[in-house]
Input
Amino acid sequence: MADQFKGVINQLNKTAAIMKIEHDELEILRKPDRIIEVSLPVLMDDGHIKVFTGYRVQYNNIRGPYKGGIRYHPKVNLDEVKTLAFWMTIKCAVADIPYGGGKGGVSVDVKKLSSGELERLTRAYTRGFADFIGPTKDVPAPDVYTNPQIMAWLMDEYSHIKGENTPAVVTGKPVEIGGSLGRGTATSLGGFYVFEEVLAKMKMPKKKISLAVQGFGNVGMNFAVIAYAAGYKIVAVSDSSGAIYDKNGLNIDKVLSHKQATGSVINFIGAKNITNEQLLELPVDVVVPAALENVITEKNAGRVKAKVIFEMGNGPTTAEAEVKLNKKGVLIVPDVLANSGGVIVSYFEWVQNLRHFYWDQAKVESHLKRQIINAFDKVWQTMESQGNREMRTAAYIVAVERLVKALKVRGI
Ligand code: NAD
Output
């Protein structure tokens, strides 16, 4: 979608109007601090050179170093990276961690690359951005189709360039080289903590509710696994090949084995194959979009039957859809809160790297729980004080208030 960034600025303007904040303060949040685009020449296995385009958008660092993932996807473009970088700025402020916001990406179909090509691309990306990233400047992390191995290559290349071991340049690393215990499941576990708080507020009993989860990657799969283990009924899951549905509930452990064996969730015995679009319109209580942006739009919002949309992926609901859903009384738990567990534990990883002192998993998870529930409480109270059910606006109010305060005390 070409004008995604315009949409997020509209959301910012709406928030500012409610908060009655000054034009100049808002102006700084309307534009990224820096946009960097780099050509990345990569030696392909067939002996040819292919030049990819890499992006890094450093949106705002008023509260701390820029922070945000790197996405490898064919649809990556500057508008999307700017939007994601803006959301990171808001997310880190909602979570109240000492980071600003940034994001990176390469337009590439990783499924068409060999492991060697993927490594050379990642090392090229690191060399291209080495002057701009760093533990106190800008700290990348995984996002769609990037993983701990890719973060390890980035850390290794950067350490070679700087001539010193620098684990804190990136988070989401394997634990063997300074990754944090619990980082792999942090986004989903953090989301799950918020999910249970939301259900309690909505008085929706665990035994009576059903969920549909879109996306079966790091975030969607781990969310489904955690919720299933906790006793929730998940009737549908999906990946890029399609969705599966069983109204009596799926055995997520078996779906996971099936995905590992076949490469996809589809054709799971006992379940019906449906489309990703149909999954969003199922008669369930909660829809959990955990894949890509703009899947709930003006077109299908009217057909969404869920009472809660729990945004584990970034930007699944368009602004137009949100207006319709708000009118229908659907509660949208926004991405900037729901999936902030990942960046919260990234922060813990960075702290551990800088201190050279490592935590056990129980400590990581208890700190995550406290941090994300504090964020939830603040957003929920703000929403109630506004007298509506617009949780995204409440989250933006919390974030913008913190950003503007930091801006004021630092001076421009
Ligand atoms: P991932 O690459 O591990 O998984 C992506 C999943 O989406 C895969 O299952 C893929 O099959 C599926 N998918 C791709 N195209 C699809 C389509 N058209 N329809 C349905 N499913 C499709 O990525 P991830 O890390 O799980 O990220 C998912 C979302 O969560 C993204 O929006 C990302 O920005 C967000 N997020 C991730 C993290 C993190 O820690 N990884 C943190 C915060 C937010």
